[in-house]
Every structure is written in C-alpha cells, then in structure tokens.
Amino acid sequence: MADRGATSIPLRRLLPALAVTAALALGACGGEPAAVVDRDGTLRLTLSEYRIDPQVIRVRPGRIHIVARNEGRLPHNLRVRSLDRERGEEVEEFGQFSPTAFPGGLVTGDVVLQSGKYELVCTLGNHDDLGQTGTLIVGDGS
After folding, report:
1. Do 116 and 142 contact (CB within 8 A), yes or no?
2. Which of 21, 65, 119, 133 has its CA 20 to 30 A from that of 126?
3. Model confidence pLDDT, tens digit, residues 48-79
4. pTM, rounded to two decimals
5. Measured between alpha carbons, how far is 69 from 47 in angstroms, rounded to an integer?
6. Residue 115 CA to chain centroid, in angstroms?
7. CA Rg, the chain, in Å?
8. How far is the C-alpha of 38 from the C-alpha of 55, rounded, in Å?
9. 16-24 long-range Cβ contacts below 8 angstroms, 24+ apart
C-alpha cells in the first residue's frame, strides 16, 4: 500500500529539470583553468594509465616543486616540455625529476618556468601517444 503522505513526481516531469541541471553543471566546467599551486609552491598531480590529472593547470611564473603520485598499475614518469616552439625545432625539457615511479610511488622535481605553455608528459613507452599528457599554462601563457 502506498504512503499517502509521500509526494510522487512523474518521471516525465523530472527529466527536463535533470537535463537543465546537468547542462548548467557542465557549463560551469568551462572557462579558465584555476591555479592549483599551493601556497608552499607545490604542484600536486596524479598519474594513472594514460592520464595526468588535472589535465590543464595554470600557475604563476617562477620556481615550482612538482609532486606526482602514481595511482596506476603501470610505472610512470613525468617531464615538462615547451609547447612554444617552431615546427621541427628540438623539444626542450625543463627541470630535474626523479626517475620512474612504480605503482604507489612518487615522481618529484623542481622546475623554474617563465610565462608560456608547457606540456606535462609521461615518456615511458608510448604513454604520451595514448593520452598521458597535460597542459601547464604559466602566467598569462604568452
């Protein structure tokens, strides 16, 4: 027997409200990436199978200490490369990073970066080709 005190909303009336809520939530995800450098100047990342999180990061120019935890099942590493280069120009890597992190381990390193766009990448095997990259925007990105 149904509880007469309970309110029942027909599903066909609920679906449009859910669709609007979902659209607003997804729309809020766009725009400028937020700065994720902590007050202590440390950028914390997560490495997993073919992903670096967060994917797009904005930081202030200068010294950045990066700590990346491998939460995946495969070994991963981390490198910072310039995206501001001419076609055919050598890939420039920045900073000194610890070697490969096995599952549960850390990759750490320090890098000093000027304003511009950089790529975060795992260089093991073809992990970068499989999507294990991220974008690091320093300053205004120019």
Report:
1. yes
2. 65
3. 999 999 999 988 899 999 999 999 999 999 99
4. 0.70
5. 6
6. 18
7. 21
8. 17
9. none
